[in-house]
Design brief:
heterodimer; A: mainly beta; Immunoglobulin-like; 7-stranded mixed β-sheet; 4-stranded antiparallel β-sheet; globular; B: Immunoglobulin-like; 5-stranded antiparallel β-sheet; 0% helix
Amino acid sequence: DAGVTQSPTHLIKTRGQHVTLRCSPISGHKSVSWYQQVLGQGPQFIFQYYEKEERGRGNFPDRFSARQFPNYSSELNVNALLLGDSALYLCASSPSGMVPEKLFFGSGTQLSVL
Amino acid sequence: EDQVTQSPEALRLQEGESSSLNCSYTVSGLRGLFWYRQDPGKGPEFLFTLYSAGEEKEKERLKATLTKKESFLHITAPKPEDSATYLCAVDYGGSQGNLIFGKGTKLSVKP
């Protein structure tokens, strides 16, 4: 079975631009979470979606937004990019969105903001 | 403030040299503690979930334990392929799906 897939794998943007990151969860998983991982740090929670509804939001500015589609795939959007947004963006899926529940992570999108 | 602290930041071992990684947490209402392994350029890979103090879980050369304030990941007779960053995360009942991760311990095992 395919794991969590993310696209693109790498992305280079300039300050002020907009970016969209995509995630396809494991088949049958209805919950998708997004995390930001800065080099040398642990992942930091951004959003969780379950059945197309936002169930949780981390401490990130409104420039960050996300949505989940009827097929449970998800997009993370970041507006007005800053240099500090450079990071590995991880998507994770889980079957039910009930906590505590192990998360299955994709390999991430490496975003570089110049 | 809820926190997860891992130590040491980096650990170098010789193949076969057993050791332990530590994860201490200061959260109220712990609902679960997770251990993940992360290889360079990859996403974290799930290892264990621990729910209550006194619980232990094992997988090959790894054994995870949990007390009321910390968790240990014991590595017995490690091999070079165990080299990775080991992340600890806690579910404390905050925003749905919100795990608080530590910064990780980077383990290097030399042959």
